Structures are given as structure tokens and as C-alpha cells.
Amino acid sequence: MTGYFLRRLLAMVPTFLGITLVTFVIVNLAPGGPIEQMLREIRFGAVSGGGPAPAVSAGGSAGTAQGVNEEILAELRRQFGYDKPLLVRYGLWLGNLARLDFGDSFVHGEPVIRVIAGKFPVSLQFGVAAFVLTYLVCIPLGIAKAVRDGTWFDFGTSVLVFVGYAVSPLMLGILLIVLFGGGSFLDWFPISGAVADFHDLMGPWEQVLDRLHHFVLPLLCYLIGNFATLTLLMKNAILEEIGKAYVTAARAKGLAERAVFYRHVLRNALIPIATGLGGFLGVFFVGNLFIEQIFSLDGMGLLFYNALLARDYPVLLGLLSLVSLVLMAGNFVSDFLYVLVDPRIDFAK
User: pLDDT per residue over 265-282, tens digit each?
Assistant: First the structure.
């Protein structure tokens, strides 16, 4: 077993290298790079100043621009690192990455790690809260649906969770604002930001209440779409276990139905749920562009979108690299939890 996990750890290295190499190549070969944008700004400045607009034709790292001094173009290539071959740039970037140096953002003009750290708290708070509440609600609800399988309770809750799953976060956010954010009906909750403007002037307890007050509507958007999958997974896992032979044998031995359910059925049904806990690492980089845009939350989703629009390659590469590491670590933790919950599993076979 130890050998399996060691092999998994070692396999993460070439996997990460492959992911970052493909990502680096695609990002750097995409049109509209930083040099093209800089040349566009030069052309726009010339037009605004009344001078003749230089004809610009820049193609990524090898672009040329008529009317722009070749020395300026060479300086731009050097400034953005495009004066070296692609694989050389990747090697240099990978060496910096090993020192947790993601470079400087083209847009923000500061280290990428600092830019990400500035957006991280908002997404982390919503990610952790949504993750915990999802499990706290869906596991008991799935158990209740399995126990009452085929009843009106089962049918009614299924309709609710599927409706929540079908409604997009964008439409749900708009609906919640209209209903509860002072749109047309009730004015119960704020609709923008994670805290009030005067949050720093409040006492500690008031700050907690203020943050919770701002969290209600966006957190509902994060939560409702996730309910259906986990709830039905819990229900179906229980129903599958109930139909197995060991349950019939336990009942034949005279065990009480409550003991059969909680000591045998529920324990085995929780195995696929427990292994999914490895995904908890993903909450560190959770971000939903639509939710953050609607509720004016300055989080990771909005950061990625803005970096993509502005061709802020260092931020894009930094985010994609961190997400790749987190997902691989989550898969590793899932395998470990699988063995921990069910010792009969032996990956070494």
C-alpha cells in the first residue's frame, strides 16, 4: 500500500509538468498577447495625438509593426520575455515556479502571488461554507429520502433538488435579488460586496453578523446547484446496500432494523461520500464568475476572467498551475480516504 501511494506521488511530477507545458504553450501562442496590446496602445496614442496611426501587425512573440521603431519592438520583446524561444521561456518560468515566483502581473504591476492572495479570502470563505453546508444538508436529506423511498417526501424533495440543479447560478442570483434584495418585493439582504462599507467601524460581533448578512444570497447560489448530485448519491448508495445479501443475513440473525441500518448499511453507503471529501481542497480556488459579477464579489472567478480578457499571462499561468496542484492533491487525498474508510481496499493488487 505504501508503495502505491509513493508511486502516486511520483506520478504527480510528470503529470504536473505535462499540464503546465501544454498550458504554457497554448497561453503563449494565443493571439492578442501583451506585445500586440502594447502596440495597439501606441497606435491609439498616435491617433489620439493627431499623428498618423502606424499600421500594426503583431503576431505574438514574433510580431512586427510598421511605423514602430524596431528598437522599441525589441525592447518590448525583452521586457515580456519574448526574446527567447518558447521552450527556453518555459524552462525559465518553471525554475521560477519552483521558488514560488509566478512573475509580475502585466495588469496589476505587482507579483502574481500577491494578486492571487488579495482575491483568495473571498473565494475561500464561500468555498468552505458551501462545502460544509452541502455535506451537512445532503447527507441527512439523502438518508431521509432512502428511508422514505417512493413516498411523497421523496418525490417532493427530488423535485426541489432537480429544480435547483436546473436553474443556472446567474438566473438564481437575479431571482434572489428581485425577491429578497429590494428589487421588487422584500428588502432583507444586501446585494453587493462581502461586507458593508463601514465594516471596519463595527465591533467584533457586529462584523460577524454583517459578514453573515452579506453571505446569504451569494451562498445560496453556490449551494443549491450542488444539492442534487450529493443527495441522490447518498440515497442511491443506501438503496444499493439495502439490496445486498449481507443485509438479508443480518436481518435473519435477528438484528433490529435500526442496528442493521446504522451499523451496516449506512457505514458502507458512506464510502463513496467519504472519498469525495478529497475534493475539499478544491474549495481553496472555488470561484463562480456569474455569482461574483452579480453580487460584486472580488474573488478568484472574476480574477481569472479579467486576466483572460487582458491577456495577463502570468496571472493565468499562476492560477492554472495552482489549480492543477490542488486537483492532483485532492485526488491523492481521495484515494487515501478510500483506504481509510474501507480497509478491504488494496490498491497494490
Answer: 888 888 777 777 766 666
